[in-house]
Amino acid sequence: MLKVENVTKYYGDFLAVDNLSFLVKPGEIFGLLGVNGAGKTTTFRMIMGLLDCSEGKITLDNKPIDYSVTDKIGFLTEERSLLTKLTVRQQAIFYGRLKGMNEKDILKRLDELLEKFGVLEYKDKKIKELSKGNQQKIQFILAIINKPKLLILDEPFSGLDPFNVELFKNEITEMSKEGSMIIFSSHRMEHVELFCKKLAIIMKGKTVLSGDLKEIKEQYRKKNIFVKGDLTKKDLLDIDGVIDVVEHADEYEVKIENIDVSQRVFKEVSKHKNIMKFVVEEPSLNEIFIAKVGESYDK
After folding, report:
1. Positive/negative CA dihedral, 166, 168, 174, 176
2. CA–CA separation, 70 vs 193, rounded Å?
3. Considering just the CA atoms, what is the radius of gyration of the chain in Å?
4. In which residue ranges of the chain is CATH 3.40.50.300 found?
5. Rounded Cα–Cα distance for residues 115 and 217 (Å)
6. pLDDT tens, 28-77?
7. 221-281 is classed in which CATH architecture?
8. Residue among 153, 149, 213, 203 nearest 181 (CA)
9. The CATH number of domain 2-217 is 3.40.50.300
10. Which of 17, 66, 241, 291 meets the CB 3.0–4.6 Å disulfide criterion with 205?
């Protein structure tokens, strides 16, 4: 289990992380979210032992994170971190040895992963000769080549098409089923919703929302209703408790103050003819994220 307990980090007088706490159990995929500069990268570096905490502590399986446990950690950075003049094989051997693996095991694992991701023919190509998407595949492969117990993914789908996003998704899901602890960070909230049952949103280094995603959605005050039929935007805006109405191609998205308003909307909508759709949905994580970050900016 990874435990981040009351962690604070100062750079001089600048407070980068403010009393942050969360835990990730084996098999869990945990979302750590925030805008640029929120403190995510600093948190990742402290988890990996690259930075010391100013206060608090971080442990993996009840042990402080130092060189005795970093071989169990994998990290996919948002930025490209490959040595572009090396071949894929050379890069894998270099990285695998840093993780305590021998060359035979590295090359066996490399072949398995290259074949799984459909890039076996690039094994002896230099990194700089690969497309951005294939470089991202190699970077991911290297992050998991040591079958890490803890895997940190920072914007893992950057530069990938939908087909390759699905490949990554399947591998991440499989790793979680095998017991890996995974921290997933992305600005694409729909990607976070694919994986994460638990998450924390941080702003200026401080947690502004955390918990089980399903419970967060259920407790969130505002809801959305999707309506399709013979009525106008004004008809919907005139209903008490309706905050906004977004017009899509063939339906309306009605934003309401709380779930109680849905009955009022249903009553009014029922007065119109040819109503083909009336669906109450939980808000998206993207809406919740924008709302919570907005509240933090207003404070």
Report:
1. negative
2. 28
3. 23
4. 2-217
5. 39
6. 999 999 888 899 999 999 999 889 999 999 999 998 988 888 889 999 98
7. 2-Layer Sandwich (3.30)
8. 149
9. yes
10. 17
